[in-house]
Structures are given as C-alpha cells and as structure tokens.
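Structure first, sequence second, as always.
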C-alpha cells in the first residue's frame, strides 16, 4: 500500500526532469482495470469524496465596465447585454452589478441611465438580477509591482506615497494585496494580506532600492551626444567625420540590442508573477509601476539619426528590435491566468519639447514625441489587452488610482454556461449593448478554457508563492533531511501522504482500485522556479482489507535534486475518479548553512 517514486529537479535551471519510477513490486493481483471516463461518476464508488462534475461547474464570467464621458454607467440590467463566444450568442445564466461606494472626496457622480430605461436605481453594493437574490462577490487579489530596474527613484517615491494612501483607503477583507519589487529578479516584499498598514510599510521599504533607469538613460545620452556632435548642422553641412553616420547607427544598434535583452528579462519576470497568480480564486490584478518600457528598443535614437544626418531610411533599422512579441506573450499569459494589468507611468506629464535635465541640449520635438510614445505604448498595450487601465501623463497619480479602484469595484458580471471540451482552448468574447452604442465597454476580449489538469497545475504553481488553504483530500507533505549528491548538488526526500478513505475506489475482482495524479513544483528564494511535473500512481488493495486500510494513509516518496538554497515545494494531488484535488506546500533549507 506504499507507492514510491523518484524525480529529479535539475540544478542549473531548476527544471523537473523526466521522472524515473522505481516502484516496489506490489502483491500479485489481477491486472488493473481500465479507468472509467473522467466526465462520469465512477460506478460503485467506495470511499473517497463526492464526484465533482466539472461540466456542471463551468460557468464563464465576463466582467464588463461600462462608462461614458462622466464615468461609470449604472443601472443596466441583464436584458441590456449581449454576449458572444467565438461569434455565437450565449444565453446569460448569471448576472450581477457591483458598485463601488465612493470616498467622501469622490469625483463627479456616475451616470445613471436615461429616464426611458426601466432598470432599478444604483445601489452602493452588489445588485443582483432578481430582487432579493443574494450575490457573493469573489475576493480580489491585487499585486503592487514596482519595477525598480525601469524607474527613476524620484518618480517612484512620489507615486509610492500616493499609492500607500490609496491602499489604506481601499484595502479591506476579503480582498488582499501584496508588494512585489523587481531589481534583476522578483522579490516578494509583502505576501498577500488584508492589512493595509503592512502593505504601506512594504511600499515604504521599496524606497531603499536604487532605480536602474538612470543607467539606461546615461547609455542613451552618450549615443545622443555623439549624434548631436556629429550632425550635419554641427559640422557645417559637411557631415564632419565621414564615418560618423555609420558609427552613430552602430552605437544605436548596440544600445537597442542591450535594451532588448534587459526588456526580455523584465517582461518575463512580470510574466512569471502572472503565472503564479493564475491558480488564485476570484478576481486578480497587477498594478505595474515603472517609467515605461520601450515597445521598440532604441527607436528614438534612429529618429535622432534621421534628423541629424537627413537619412529617412534609417528608421527601418528600428524594426529589428520591435518587441511587440514579448508583450503579446505576456498578454496571452495574463488572459490565460485571468489577471488584469493596470499600468502607471511614474514619470508624470511628459513634454514634447524634449527638454530634460540630463540633456545638454533639447531634443527635437519629433524625437521627444517618439520617446514618450515608445515608452507609453507598451503600458497601453498591456492594460488594454487585459481589460485594465493605463495611467499616463499624471504628476499626481491619485485620480488615476481612483479610476483603478472604480474599475475594480464597479462592473457588471455576465455569466454563461460553457460546455467543456476537456481541452485547453482559446475563445474570443464580444459583449454588446442593445442600446446606447456611445457607451464604452471594457472587458477581457479572450479567455482560455482550461482542462481540469491544467487548472490543478496552475494551483500548484500558485503555491510556490502564496499559501493556499485548499485541501479537501487532507494530503500532507513533508521534506526530509537533505543529503549531498554530485557536483555540489543535494537530494531532498519528499513524502506525500493521502488518507485512503479520501481516495475513491472501485471493485475489480477481489480488489479495489483507484488512481491519483501528483503534481510537483519547486521555487528557490532567488526566484528560480521548476516546471510542473506530474506522476500517476495506481492504488490497489484487497477488498477484504478495506476496513483496515481506509484508516491508514497512502505514501508517495520522491527525491528532488537541487542546488543549495531555500525552497518552497508545492504539491497537488488529484483523485482521478472523483476529480477532487488537494494542495500542500513545505519549505526546505537544502544546504546545512541555510538551515534555520
């Protein structure tokens, strides 16, 4: 009744390698029966939890914000909306409207429907479709992400002060927030909490980090100075050094390559956080704070060369560094994870005159405009494609933060039944109003239907960063004493136990059989994370031994091969007959010097 396996967590890249099963030989028994279809309740189930019919629980909720020039439009009803999935109309089975209770210093009141509308008046709480019907609002999980590699300290600190005030005014249970900082790697400064003072304190701690944007600006300024010093105007129209143009292009390309490399790390780290949040329940959002990210690294330098040397064709050089693909990948991940991105440009109001303190002379208006657009377009792209808001050109971010709070709390939830395909599949969503085409609708334009195994894997990945209190199977996870391996690596024995009475079994001759799937992942305190790995384990006991065995636990043993460090190990176990799953995590200090 003990199933033992061994898996390796590859050291250099912390990736789970292929699992080598080393099962102990079980007692002689009939061959395993074919598993019953996952979509149907197992016949003659013995023990275990109730069968979870995934098809009955699959409801797609589309959250829609409706605004006009004055702000949110309230009072709409179920009959005002039309929802289409992949071009086909979907009957609405669920409807609720949620309204933010505005603070005392709120801006102008939201727009009610015109008198001809028959909708109920707005209420300062959730408004269900039917009178008296209770509406349960899911909790919100908000990550405040400060990108220290792409922000100037002065800009950052100005916004952090306002952000702390905003969190104090808006964070309350059941909602939770966390603080994440990025400086070459992602650091969780404050895990999810409903305490606004803990969040404010973590935001205050971000101030000690030196922003990395100054290094990028210095590198760019050196290229701009070279271009300006060797321009046609400054060389009396002769072009000065005959190779100046080619040298300027080489310097611009070198800068763009370096910036593209840094951008790749920046976006992928943000993408990692999105992935980890994918398994959280409820509404999920990231408020991303930076001085902007270049959609096309180095683009402004090629425009500067065009102005300086009167060479229009040089603009085509920038196409090589177009990084829309990076942001598109991030958006796809956010769509899959159900995470909305809100972006804030900490620089505040930008001047198109090109006058900046670090410049020896003003940029041309075109180059200044291109620079602003290049660094803001990415913020707009991330927000628009995930249903969020981009806050730009605001020296005081308070009104923008209020817009974010209103968008998070004032929306219509439209639900329709999805017939599960059992596969991971992208669907396109379109929402229309039957009247009032002038209203603006903001919602997620796509969603990814996820199979049950994918959803469980998402929860396991979330467990690498967040504590998940979701364990109906009652699984227990323990890590043993690490032992030295080869090449400076260590093996960490890990044991997962599951109560036999929580595992569904079905008769097979004189035996009872069942199946569990175990999902593993690990992450060290430097942010290096493994891929998800899963192993299937059949359960077979003699029917005559059931009364005794169902008071015992099944044990699954695994060894992880890792580098020295401190780890979070996250595990999920799925009963394949009932679709029920449980989750657990354990922390392990792998090298003796790291134990505490």
């Amino acid at each position: 009744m003990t199933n033992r396996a061994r898996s390796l967590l590859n050291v250099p890249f912390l990736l789970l390698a292929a699992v080598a099963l080393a099962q102990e030989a079980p007692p002689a028994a009939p061959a395993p029966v074919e598993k019953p279809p996952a979509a149907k309740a197992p016949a003659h189930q013995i023990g275990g939890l109730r069968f979870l019919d995934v098809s009955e629980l699959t409801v797609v909720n589309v959250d829609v914000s409706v605004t006009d020039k004055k702000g949110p439009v309230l009072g709409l009803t179920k009959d005002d909306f039309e929802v289409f999935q992949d071009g086909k109309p979907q009957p609405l089975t669920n409807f609720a409207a949620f309204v933010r209770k505005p603070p005392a210093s709120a801006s102008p009141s939201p727009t009610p429907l015109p008198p001809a509308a028959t909708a109920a008046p707005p209420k300062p709480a959730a408004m269900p479709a039917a009178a008296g019907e209770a509406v349960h609002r899911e909790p919100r999980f908000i990550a405040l992400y400060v990108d220290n590699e792409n922000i100037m300290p002065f800009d950052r600190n100005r916004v952090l002060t306002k952000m702390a005030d905003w969190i104090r005014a808006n964070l309350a249970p059941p909602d939770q927030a966390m603080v994440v900082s990025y400086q070459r790697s992602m650091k969780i400064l404050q895990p999810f909490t409903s305490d606004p003072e803990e969040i404010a304190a973590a935001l205050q701690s971000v101030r000690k980090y030196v922003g990395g944007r100054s290094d990028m600006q210095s590198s760019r300024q050196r290229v701009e100075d070279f271009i300006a010093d060797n321009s046609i105007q400054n060389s009396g129209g002769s072009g000065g050094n005959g190779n100046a143009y080619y040298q300027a292009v080489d310097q611009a390309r070198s800068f763009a390559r370096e910036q593209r490399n840094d951008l790749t790390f920046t976006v992928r780290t943000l993408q990692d956080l999105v992935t980890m949040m994918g398994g959280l329940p409820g509404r999920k959002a990231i408020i991303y704070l930076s001085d902007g990210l270049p959609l096309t690294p180095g683009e402004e330098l090629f425009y500067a060369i065009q102005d300086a040397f009167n060479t229009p064709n040089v603009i085509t050089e920038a196409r090589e560094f177009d990084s829309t693909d990076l942001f598109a990948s991030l958006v796809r991940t956010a769509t899959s994870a159900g995470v909305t991105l809100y972006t804030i440009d900490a620089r505040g109001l930008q001047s198109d005159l090109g006058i900046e303190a670090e410049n020896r002379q003003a940029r041309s208006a075109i180059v200044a405009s291109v620079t602003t657009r290049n660094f803001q377009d990415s913020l707009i792209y991330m927000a628009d494609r995930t249903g969020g808001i981009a806050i730009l050109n605001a020296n005081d971010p308070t009104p923008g933060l209020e817009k974010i709070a209103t968008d998070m709390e004032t929306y219509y939830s439209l639900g329709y039944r999805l017939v599960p395909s059992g596969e991971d599949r992208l669907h396109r969503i379109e929402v229309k109003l039957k009247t009032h085409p002038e209203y603006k609708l903001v919602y997620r334009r796509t969603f990814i239907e996820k199979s049950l195994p994918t959803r469980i894997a998402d929860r396991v990945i979330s467990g690498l960063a967040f504590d998940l209190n979701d364990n109906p199977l009652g699984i227990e996870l323990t890590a043993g004493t690490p032992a030295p391996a080869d090449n400076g690596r260590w093996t960490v024995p890990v044991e997962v136990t599951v109560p036999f009475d929580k595992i569904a079994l079905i008769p097979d001759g004189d035996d009872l059989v069942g199946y569990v799937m175990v999902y593993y992942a690990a992450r060290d305190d430097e942010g290096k994370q493994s891929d998800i790995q899963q192993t299937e384990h059949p359960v077979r006991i003699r029917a005559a031994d059931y009364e005794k065995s169902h008071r015992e636990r099944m044990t699954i043993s695994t060894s992880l091969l890792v580098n020295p460090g401190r780890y979070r190990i996250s595990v999920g176990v799925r009963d394949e007959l009932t679709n029920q799953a449980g989750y657990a995590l354990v922390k392990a200090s792998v090298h003796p010097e790291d134990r505490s």
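Margin note: The domain at 2-49+472-594 is CATH 2.60.40.10 (Immunoglobulin-like).
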